[in-house]
């Protein structure tokens, strides 16, 4: 029982509340900026890059080549997760977040300045791939740090809600990128392809400065500080994860694989499929994506709160059931070619199913690992599955579409199978017991 001197004062309580609220909002703002950069590339890959950087290919091959450069960012993510996870567990969470913010923002600006194929030939594609690789490393390290800064600052009973805030940053990032590309898509075709598409990339310098200003004000994670004070660091966090926590790593990979594949199939692939195959206007699909992201912005924190009440893995499992049930419906709604049903498809896919998966994910996945390897554990598992699922999602969906002679039934079956795997994986996960306070060192016996 605490004595009077140990009880927190009102000022200390307010300061603590301000600390975890600031950490949650800063994590959300930071991920908004980084996901804006990442989604901007995905949208441009679906609509523009095949014409700018791969004009000598036929339309289908050019789109595949553009998506291949898009996939490079995903395959770089595990490397970013390992590198930044190591230093995040050894040096601290905050410094890694500042570095990854720069590594994401600067390449985005440079992409907007790369000359076209007509001016420098294949060097344009080489530079594009290099910038995408740097973006992938940055995102691979950023996600784990943003989630942990929010979750580890949060008090018990609210970790799901605060863990959902960096997740919810995906929605405004998607909204901003869709609005930006939607605005330039209204330009005449020649203007959009010559200079218009570059504006959203170069303009991200403003968001980069805002993100830096916000994140530099956040204190270091209290879990990391306690771990550092009590000497619980490990020499090689990645080896510790692989040796002691292989089960936890595998169940996170299995769960994440369906979530990331669902998202990039229903957002990136669907954009190319709807505009290229179904003949739906770009602006209609971008507007629908915005509606879905707005719904997700509301639903993700609600899913985090619900996870605090009933358990995060049960909310996640609800989302996996949604994948199985909604995959065929999503493509049926697109095939209607009616604006209303296209909007319903996006809201259902992004604002409901994806929100149930992604909202509780930060707290759920973080609770699988102890503090001394938590950054490395969640980064490694999440980014490996992201490379497999997200990096291959548009290419895999395009291949399955070709195998089905233009019928997306195979794509729906593929998504459903991953949903089943994710449901089983989530069921096998721990609860939140790993968020228990770090034990103090044993007291030395009196001489």
From TrEMBL:
Extract the signal peptide range. none
Q: What PROSITE patterns does its record include?
A: MFS
Indicate where this protein resides in the cell. Answer: Cell membrane
TM region(s), chain numbering: 63-84, 96-114, 120-140, 161-183, 195-214, 262-282, 288-307, 314-334, 340-359, 380-402, 408-427
* Entry GO MF terms: transmembrane transporter activity
Q: What does the entry list under GO cellular component?
A: plasma membrane
InterPro entries (UniProt xref) = MFS, MFS_dom, MFS_sugar_transport-like, MFS_trans_sf
Source domain of life is Bacteria
Q: Where does the record place the Major facilitator superfamily (MFS) profile domain?
A: 23-434
Q: Name one Pfam family in it.
A: MFS_1
Name of the protein in question: Inner membrane metabolite transport protein YhjE
Q: What is the lineage of its organism?
A: Bacteria, Pseudomonadati, Pseudomonadota, Betaproteobacteria, Burkholderiales
């Amino acid at each position: 029982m605490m004595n009077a001197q140990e009880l927190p004062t009102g000022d200390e309580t307010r300061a603590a509340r301000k600390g975890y609220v600031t950490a949650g909002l800063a994590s959300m703002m930071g991920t908004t900026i980084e996901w804006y950069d990442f989604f901007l590339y995905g949208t441009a890959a679906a609509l523009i890059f095949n014409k700018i950087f791969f004009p000598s290919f036929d339309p289908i091959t050019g789109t595949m080549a553009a998506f291949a450069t898009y996939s490079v960012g995903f395959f770089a993510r595990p490397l970013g997760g390992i590198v930044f996870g190591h230093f995040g567990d050894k040096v601290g969470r905050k410094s890694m977040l500042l570095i990854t913010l720069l590594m994401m923002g600067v390449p985005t600006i440079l992409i907007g300045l790369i000359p076209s194929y007509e001016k420098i030939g294949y060097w344009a594609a080489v530079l594009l791939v290099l910038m995408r690789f740097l973006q992938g490393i940055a995102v691979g390290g950023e996600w784990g740090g943003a989630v942990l800064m929010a979750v580890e600052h949060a008090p018990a009973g609210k970790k799901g809600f605060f863990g959902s805030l960096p997740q919810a940053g995906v929605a405004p990032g998607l909204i901003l990128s869709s609005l930006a590309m939607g605005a330039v898509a209204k330009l005449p075709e020649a203007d959009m392809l010559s200079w218009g598409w570059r504006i959203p990339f170069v303009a991200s310098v403003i968001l980069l400065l805002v993100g830096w200003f916000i994140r530099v004000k956040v204190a270091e994670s209290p879990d990391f500080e306690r771990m550092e004070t009590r000497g619980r660091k490990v020499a090689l966090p990645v080896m510790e994860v692989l040796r002691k926590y292989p089960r936890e790593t595998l169940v996170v990979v299995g769960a994440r694989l369906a979530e990331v594949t669902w998202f990039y199939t229903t957002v990136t692939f669907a954009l190319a499929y709807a505009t290229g195959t179904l003949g739906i206007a770009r602006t209609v699909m971008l507007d629908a994506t915005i509606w879905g992201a707005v719904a997700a912005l509301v639903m993700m924190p609600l899913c985090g709160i619900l996870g605090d009440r009933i358990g995060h893995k049960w909310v996640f499992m609800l989302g996996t059931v949604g994948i199985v049930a909604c995959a065929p419906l999503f493509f049926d709604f697109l095939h209607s070619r009616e604006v209303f049903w296209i909007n319903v498809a996006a809201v259902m896919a992004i604002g409901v199913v994806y929100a149930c998966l992604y909202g509780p994910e930060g707290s759920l996945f973080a609770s699988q690992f102890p503090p001394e390897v938590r950054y490395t554990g969640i980064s490694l598992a999440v980014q490996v599955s992201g490379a497999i699922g997200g990096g291959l999602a548009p290419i895999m969906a395009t291949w399955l579409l070709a195998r089905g002679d233009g019928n997306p039934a195979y794509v729906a079956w593929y998504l459903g199978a991953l949903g089943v795997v994710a449901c089983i994986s989530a069921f096998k996960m721990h609860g939140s017991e790993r968020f228990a306070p770090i034990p103090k060192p044993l007291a030395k016996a009196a001489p």
